[in-house]
Amino acid sequence: MPSPETRSVRSITWRRLTERDFPLLRAWLEQPHVARWWHHETTPEAVARDFGPAARGEEPSEDLLVFLDGQPLGLVQRSKYADYPEYIAELAAIVAVPEGAMSIDYLIGDPEQVGRGLGPLMIRSVVESTWAEFPAASCVLVPVSAANRASWRALEKAGLRRVAEGELEPDNPIDDRAHYVYRIDR
């Protein structure tokens, strides 16, 4: 084990996704470990249709391109539940959605980076910045498919706790409706 003096510190940074990033995002969405859970169309037109409004600031959510030590690592989508009442209505059937609640969704694009503890690091970094960037944010509330163990384990390792279980519409139609909901408070 390296001594504390020689241990490297991993730097997580991000910026808003731009249209120039769509080819990289498309390549990530096509990776089997991402496609399984994101179940997203990957034609250039579909990526532009679904990610273009946020990239241009026309959508209230943020798509953040995340970097590890300056190299692209993944994507985090961050949004206020208040901007999406239809999600509040669906989620409220299984858990209270407090005023000021935020949500995130995330992926690590490069399969070589999966399983190295980077998901929790990425999640924790974005959650910590959420408190500073969104002063009215009361909590981060994340629904995740119960079948996606890697995702909910990353949330747990990042400090979120499971607060509910219930049925929600899955992102991938091959999944059942069982979901866990994770939460971290300011």
UniProtKB/TrEMBL annotation:
InterPro entries, per database record: Acyl_CoA_acyltransferase, GNAT_dom
Alphabetical keyword list: Antibiotic resistance, Transferase
GO biological process, alphabetically ordered: response to antibiotic
N-acetyltransferase domain segment(s): 12-186
Pfam families referenced in this protein's UniProt entry, alphabetically: Acetyltransf_8 (PF13523)
Highest taxon in the source lineage: Bacteria
PROSITE patterns in the record: GNAT
GO MF: N-acyltransferase activity
UniProt protein name: N-acetyltransferase
Source species taxonomy: Bacteria, Bacillati, Actinomycetota, Actinomycetes, Streptosporangiales
